[in-house]
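Exercise 7. Given the components listed, write out the predicted structure of the assembled complex. Treat all entries as one system.
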Amino acid sequence: MSARFWILDVVFFALLVAIAIPFGRFLTRVFAGENRASQRALGWLERGIYRVAGVDPAKEHSWTAYAGLMLLFSLVTQLVTHVLLRYQHKLPFNPTKLDAVPPWLAYNTATSFTTNTNWQSYGGETTMSYLSQAVALTSHNFFSAGVGVCVAVALIRGLARAESPTIGNFWVDLVRVHLYVLLPLCLGYAVFLVSQGVIQTWQGPATWTALDGTQQWILRGPVASQEAIKMLGTNGGGYFNANSAHPFENPTPLSNFVQMLSIWAIPAALCVTLGDMMKSRGHGRAVFGAMAFLGVVGILVLGYFESKGTPLLANAGADLGTLGHPGGNMEGKELRFGIADSALFATVTTGASCGAVNAMHDSFTPLGGLVPMFNMQLGEVVFGGVGAGMYGILVYVILAVFLAGLMVGRTPEYLGKKIDSRDVRFAALYALIPAFSILIFTALGLMTEAGRSGIANAGPDGAPVPHGFSEVLYAFSSGTANNGSAFAGLTAYSPQHPIFYSLTLGLAMFVGRFPLIIAALAIAGNMAKKKRVPVGPGSFPVEGGLFVGLLVGTVVLVGALTFFPALAIGPLVEHVMMHR
Amino acid sequence: MGEGGSRRVSKHSVRKQHSMWDPAIVRPAIVESFKKLDPRAMAKNPVMFVVEAGSLLVTVLFVRDVVTGHAVGVKFAVQVIAWLWFTVIFANFAEAMAEGRGKAQADTLRKMRTTTTARRIRRTDDETPLKVGALPEGVGGGEEVAATELRKGDVVWVAAGDMIPADGEILEGIASVDESAITGESAPVVREAGGDRSAVTGGTRVLSDWVKIEIRQDPGTGFIDRMIALVEGSSRQKTPNEIALTILLSALTLIFLVAVATLEPYARFFHGSLGVMALVALLVCLIPTTIGGLLSAIGIAGMDRLVQHNVLATSGRAVEAAGDIDVLMLDKTGTITFGNRQAFQFLPVSGVDEAELARVAALSSLADETPEGKSIVVLAAQRAIAPALPEGATFVPFTARTRMSGIDSAAGHMLRKGASDMVIAHVRAKGGPVPADLQAIVAKVAGEGGTPLVVADGAKILGVVYLKDTVKPGMRERFARMRAMGIKTVMITGDNPLTAKKIAEEAGVDDFLAEATPEAKLAYIHKMQEGGRLVAMTGDGTNDAPALARADVGVAMNTGTQAAKEAGNMVDLDSDPTKLIEVVEIGKQLLMTRGSLTTFSIANDVAKYFSILPAMFTGILAFQAVQGQPRSSAFWALNVMRLGSPSSAILSAVIFNALVIVALIPLALRGVKYRPLGAGVLLRRNLLVYGLGGVVAPFVAIKAIDLLVNVLHLA
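Answer.
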């Protein structure tokens, strides 16, 4: 692996830590309503919103009310988006005169953006009007990210509080995360992206005459405004079909670097917030450490196999002599990013539930491609989606503490909160639902003609090959984990088969989002009610290297035990066959 | 209360310890493990239920194939099916073993309940007042009823030689009672109406005198009955942690069920099929059968260990709670200290010889049977002063009014020792002077936590005997052990704060509650619980009952009152208050054993995957046969253990999975070794042994079994 690879990754993690600490502290203050400086600037607006909406900011919600409002907010906004997509041809800001989005695609897309998945069964620039992109979809980029952060904060509150019937006010959390965090940051971020060459315009396509005299249309639109929240909110739904590989979305190595940082910025900062709110900075550090460890291993594996290339490339006479840039497996990668930037991007985007891509994951080596897939199957806890990664890892923490907690001879307790059967039930559900969704939907995809028709890769005689299997497995892993990236060989929407993947992926995205959020909030509510036991020498330690190891072990073991057979049939066997 | 509570520590127990593989227990357990195959019984254990269902499925399919003549690979199939059934039976065997050991104890307990008859002198619904006094033997002694017919509230009359028919409280009379049947202590104990020694237990025998007893338990609900039910496992309810763990294990089972079931459609995608046999084998190996099979055995064995320590618990929940204890409240007297104040020093006033003081103090105590009095004589003897009781002297005992004791010589000369104010008043009345330095000496002794006894010879005050409460040897070490476990020890005493502080320091407890009234104890427990702490306490008196009931773990002494026993959730038959330490350790051991075996069980799956998956997929994605080389599959390349053949790989994994249950039965019954260390150290140690060990061990074991299977040509 090249020197660029090592330098890039070290600088990346150093900057991530440097950003996470002050940002996390700021988030703590925002959700406690103690962000005095920003309140001086925008407090009038916050109070105005409450007054107009008739929200009493002092009144807190029980976990059921919090979950109900979250669900109501999400589903109503999903419906609005659905309607906007279906009627975009009758609405303004449609310079390329695009037709209505077909019904199943509209359903799939609305679900996709509401659940922070941003799976795209369409090419953005040729399907969505400017209005659909900038309003119907971008608004969800904000909302779904905001909801994720709210849930994470509500869960942390539940853990941090004692003997409280409530876990916060959903509306207040939602307004604050938008007003003080997402909107101001995205404003600056979009301006930065424009400086790098990302476009932002309401004008229709540009036309120019090519050297051979043909007229070309160059599609464009309000890209920068969507791009900023696409990364910061770990949405990942690109304006263009090529996503962050497109020069109008991600023009330079610098924009690429900042995009990667911005994906992990909020999830990493939430680790700091966790430490602050629970008054145990060591615990926040440990959770960060576990996430970072999993991320580093992913980057190393992915980087190694992509740098090494494949026997097929070697046989074709490609230069693999240098394990550096641009040697190795350059298929499906942008020359301006190369292997180092693509490997890091792929790990970051699948570790978080972002799903933006700057390279074709379908073209990765088998074991290189296994990394993004496994990241998603772990439930997006390698920093994870904004908020989603935090509540996901906290559920793993509860499982780890419960299991190992028994081994110290006490009823397992997590920072002074005893873990009872109700917590275990919801944590188990949290682990169960995605496993069911990924494995069963994949089986459905393989068993039905409609499912198999989408698969791109087959053997010379049309025989099924492991990579074809991986495409389907990847799709449902991505949908369920609310990631949104794809082994793009899979055709998830075609006029011949409009329903199968639209429906199944739509369901996968739904069950991978809302039932899990409800489980997380149920744990929050149950934990908030409990008394706090003072932490002493007999208490289970949730900081330090031992705990990091335990947490990493639990995450990997649960993920590996669930998905090892599927991964063996897909990438592992593909690797064996390729190297035979 | 508990001041002066008995501290008999029985060195032997009636409950004999059974060796691990005692044939008397193993033989019925084998029978029992087949009886437990009844699916209605299995349904209580989701993990093992799945194993049984899977075993049944492959058996039925195999029989069908044999009948229709389609059976292939019969030798392999029969072995796999047999081992799948062994998995269920071994798990049942573990439970039956634990229950068998419990039953053996229950039988011992049951022997105490031999059918006795009782003489009922008043029914529970009878309103007529009870006649006071002894009943004439045999005449008008109430009605003769079987002990089992007695109801709560009935009053019975028990005379010397009779068995006490049921648990109850003495209303009238005093008797010496042989309680060896339940305590193992052969010396009889005195039981009397009123006070803290009024409770009697069914199955014990009155040796002398008579008592009237009000029955406090309906038949079948007495302490022994409840205990029998618990150790037999019949009425064992799952504890909170066990419920939570069962949920987790069920969830894991469901995940593996789906992970395995979806393999068939995945294989069909590649135009292959895996077969039910291989799928069931993989499923059984993956689901947590090790812990699933041993879970109930662990719980029963924990109860069993408690009984071996002569402690009866009313529920498994209480045992589990003991492991969580943060605060332990112990009575000072009788528990931490010897409970009686012992003479420590003679402190003469100026102008008096120490030997003279010692002589008079000893003289005044010669007839004094109290421990204090005896210790004065002993201390004097150590100074070679052993006066003889003068002829004709009469003993003046201590009374609450005079608060002095001593002797009057035949000539009327008074020797007195007692509370300083009383002795001073006594001397003044005789016109004697009060020495100038007396108050200083008295204040010094009291300040050090001791009790000053002023000694007077006639009208002359000689000095002070310094009585000191002595901390039992070994207490410091025990409290240090508790501290290492993260448990705070609190000493309860009626002493003033100054005295309490001194003894607390000497004994090494973390905190003390001085001048403790029942209300103060209750308030202290409440305060601790408000802060989220779990409190354990020991007690024996009726006025301990509210606190015992309030505490999360209340251990009543068997010598205590019925009220105390009913309020607590455990009874210590040896009435040894420090036994709480062992109870806490047993509770912790119980949780640790469950956690460790769960971790081990799950960690095992890694090796099982690597042995079965490559084997079951060999028919799929087969490479083109290369000339001169056997046909091979891409999947067989994942056979990292280099097991002999696909069938030996599957068989070895299934055999390992079944045998590991048997191999771990001793650990489940004995429990994981507990050491009083901090949580971090314990976690590190157990994670290493059961987590890492759980990953590595099956790789080695399955490889070894596979070698054997191939050597013996079993597959």
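Discussion: Chain A has a mean pLDDT of 92. Chain A touches chain B through 68 residues (CB under 8 Å).
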